[in-house]
Amino acid sequence: MCQWSKLPGDLLDTIDENLVMYSDKVRVRAVCDSWNSHLQKIPNHRLRQLPWLLQAFKNNKKASHGLFNLLEEQFYLLDLPAEAQGILFIGSSHGWVLTIQDLDINNRALDICLINPLTRAVIQLPPRLAFPDVVEYCVDNVGEEYAMVSDSNDAEGMRDGIHVHFISQIHLLCLIGKIILSSPPSYDDCVVVAIYGEKPRLAYCKCNDKKWMPLMEDNFIAYSDIIFYKRKLYALTAQGRLLFFENISPESKAIEIVSEGPPGRRCFPMYLVECSDGGLLMVCRYVDFFDGEHKDSIVRTIGFGVYKLDQGNSSWIKVKDIGEDMLFLGCNSSMSMSSRNFPGYKGNRIYFTDSPFSYSGKENEQENSDIGVFNLEDGSFEPPSGFKCDPKFLWPPPIWVTPPGPY
């Protein structure tokens, strides 16, 4: 009979060195006391893991949540805190999910929270009402309660010397884009950056702030995506321009890296993602609109285009093959993984999810879901392995979440 506890130490070290997943390193140390005492403590950093899909669904008429593990093809129920009831996912970063309260007449501010789906920790961020484009809440202006900063040519009134126009709560809810973190919120230097507004701009805050601060006001720039790359904030405009910020403050100025996007048809949304070799990619998502079962408009992804930053020439270069990389795109902080670390998974693929604001939101319409895997080699689509798109999982759309590793 084999005595596992007497396995040679050098062989045990080799086994441990070849384990990629954090969960596997935990399991190997749990085999017996001698293995646990011989092997070094698990390194105090995040090991590469495939993202999970965080989903919301109705369970006995109550909103519930769960995580779908792509590697195990298993769905795990979550017991999230009360702040997770009636929310939309508007970002995920460093294992945390950013949420905004869905339409609620009792929550005029539209609360924004950071939620850790595993520890159930909640951090309250400044609400949507505290963004720079909101002047005031007008309780008597039923149906158009929010006074918004306006250009003089479309102003409907004045508030404190500022030109304003008025919008509804559902309109305000839709005027929030992706939100990302510079680091885990436990870090003192953590900064939260958001895309917001009718002409998408940037704002930022710290976890204990009461309001969002504008980051480089410019009426001629509309942002499509943001990413922290090499510890700096990079921003992509709707025209394919690439900018970065040396620091984040009200006085910050953007430095232009690429002055214009590649030629060809425009697309939206567009993403920034760091690939496994350390380069920076711009991914264009092409969508079309179709009539749904109830004659409402359904957004459907029909393809992707990938470009890599050529820093020497300050331009984007078309890429037809991303090798072993898998890209994960959506409202999350865009990310890439190498397929060689995950047996059974193939590279040159783009995993994508919906945005809650490009979505019809009709329950029990499975055709509405725009979630899938795109093969860059042949242009084909398929569902994520093991993921069953049950209609009860369709609102809000799932979001990619990196499993919180040890810190």
Give me a quick take on this structure.
By secondary structure, this protein is mostly beta strands. Helix content is 7%, strand content 39%.
Sequence-ordered SSE layout with sheet pairings:
Elements: H1 9-17, H2 22-29, H3 33-38, E1 52-59, E2 62-69, E3 74-78, E4 87-93, E5 96-101, E6 112-115, E7 122-125, E8 134-137, E9 146-149, E10 157-159, E11 162-167, H4 169-174, E12 176-181, E13 192-196, E14 201-205, E15 213-214, E16 223-229, E17 232-237, E18 242-245, E19 254-258, E20 270-274, E21 280-291, E22 297-310, E23 315-319, E24 325-329, E25 335-338, E26 349-352, E27 372-375, E28 381-382, E29 399-401
Parallel strand pairs: 24-26
Antiparallel strand pairs: 1-2, 1-29, 2-3, 4-5, 5-6, 6-7, 8-9, 9-11, 10-11, 12-13, 13-14, 14-15, 16-17, 17-18, 18-19, 20-21, 21-22, 22-23, 24-25, 26-27, 27-28
